[in-house]
Inverse folding.
């Protein structure tokens, strides 16, 4: 068929892709029209008819998802501009700092408290090889599993919040290395009985920490709702499960920060490290991860001067080994 904008001959299958790449001004309105008609309840055949196209044209070009009532919904294509970070090099020291958090593939900072994709990328590349199995027991928006899919590792992601599962699934809806599309489950990481003993090559864990960001209002077992003492009791149960599922001599990485109560520092990071050592792990590395969300002006800056305390600007990334 001929492109209506540049008259170039292109296969019907690549028409919308061609508009996206060569004529973005025509791509968005056409896509919007299709999605609006679909939201208005028109079937794919009706949409095709109203746009003077064949039904095959729509199904060849757009991602169609069958809903529970049997009708097809049009999924907006993901506009991915880069699949990889530019000029990536592995971190080589015990201080990690990512000023630009990374926005390749579907990565974005929308999920509160999600980690920079540079963290799982470094861990996966340093500690695993292609085809290995990587577990993220606190999946959130799926940052780790986007990286396992891009880097051809088998990913398993667990989160207690069904909303996180939905967001992660959306972020993983890209067509690249589909043989490595991960397994995602809405479960509690204190009980990983779907995973066999000694079966995982790397764990990338980013637990919520004690009451700082609440990920739900009342989900039973959501560790983000617990105060420090209860959090430490429950994280011990997670540490035991992670120890059980990891293969011998493999690594488990945990990102965790400290907090303040009544103007004093609570060494939550070290407390969590102790719980992992008690579960049987040995400490391989302690990495300081710099945080870039602390402003040198504004409300918290003024308070830090007025009330004489320092703003926390780092977290710990502990790397444990199962001996
Ligand atoms: C700090 S976020 C993880 C963010 C993730 N690294 C990302 O980049 O999107 C912590 C996650 O742990 C989940 N969570 C809390 N308690 C849990 C539990 N008991 N089992 C599994 N997931 C849990 C929360 O729902 C939240 O999504």
């Amino acid at each position: 068929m001929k492109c209506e904008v540049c008259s170039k001959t292109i296969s019907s299958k690549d028409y919308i892709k061609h508009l996206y790449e060569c004529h973005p001004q025509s791509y968005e309105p056409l896509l919007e029209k299709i999605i609006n008609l679909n939201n208005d309840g028109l079937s794919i055949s009706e949409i095709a008819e109203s746009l003077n196209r064949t039904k095959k044209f729509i199904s060849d070009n757009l991602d169609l998802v069958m809903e529970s009532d049997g009708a097809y919904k049009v999924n907006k294509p993901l506009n991915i501009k880069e699949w990889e970070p530019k000029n990536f090099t592995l971190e080589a020291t015990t201080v990690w700092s990512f000023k630009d958090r990374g926005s390749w593939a579907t990565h974005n900072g929308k999920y509160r408290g999600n980690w920079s994709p540079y963290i799982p990328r470094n861990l996966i590349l340093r500690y695993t090889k292609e085809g290995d199995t990587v577990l993220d027991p606190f999946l959130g928006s799926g940052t780790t599993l986007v990286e396992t899919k891009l880097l051809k590792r088998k990913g398993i992601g667990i989160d207690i919040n069904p909303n996180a599962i939905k967001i992660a699934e959306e972020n993983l809806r890209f067509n690249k290395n589909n043989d490595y599309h991960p397994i995602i489950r809405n479960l509690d990481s204190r009980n990983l009985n779907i995973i066999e003993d000694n079966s995982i090559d790397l764990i990338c864990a980013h637990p919520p920490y004690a009451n700082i960001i609440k990920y739900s209002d009342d989900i039973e077992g959501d560790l983000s709702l617990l105060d420090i003492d209860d959090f430490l009791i429950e994280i011990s149960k997670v540490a035991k499960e992670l120890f059980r599922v990891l293969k011998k001599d493999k690594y488990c990485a945990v990102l965790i920060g400290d907090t303040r109560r009544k103007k004093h520092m609570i060494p939550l990071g070290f407390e969590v490290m102790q719980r992992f050592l008690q579960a049987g792990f040995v400490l391989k590395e302690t990495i300081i991860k710099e945080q870039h969300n602390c402003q040198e002006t504004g409300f918290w800056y003024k308070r830090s001067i007025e009330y004489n305390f320092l703003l926390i600007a780092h977290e710990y990334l502990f790397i444990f080994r199962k001996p």
